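Figure 2 data, in text form.
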Amino acid sequence: MQKFKSKIKSYSFIIFPAIIIIALKFLMGKSVLKFNFEHMDTLISIIVTLIGILLTILTIYLSFPKNDKIVERMKKTKHNEILLKNIFFGICLLSLAVLLWMFSSYYEEIVILSVASFSNIIICSYYLYKLGKL
């Protein structure tokens, strides 16, 4: 069970957004969820703000004092890899949403990508909190 939990943590950057994407696609296909696409400019400004939040989390992580105890513990538990992968993947999802908005009219996918990236932000916030307690 511990090995399974470890694998979920290691691949959380892809597992949780994928689950959200599949769930939203299913719910939208069944007409359970409907979105109003009239205010897409507002959503894009929120997406850009979320990219800024992820970059801020990266900056805070990089500014942590790196004494031997913290570095050794992070390497042992691989928390630094999990955090960095979630930051990178979250920025990629949000950037893809902005690119879709700029060059296409796939508004449904833009909403799905932006909602899916919330899982990356939540995971990053959790790991940043944990790093602060070390």
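Caption note: DSSP finds six helices and no strands in the chain.
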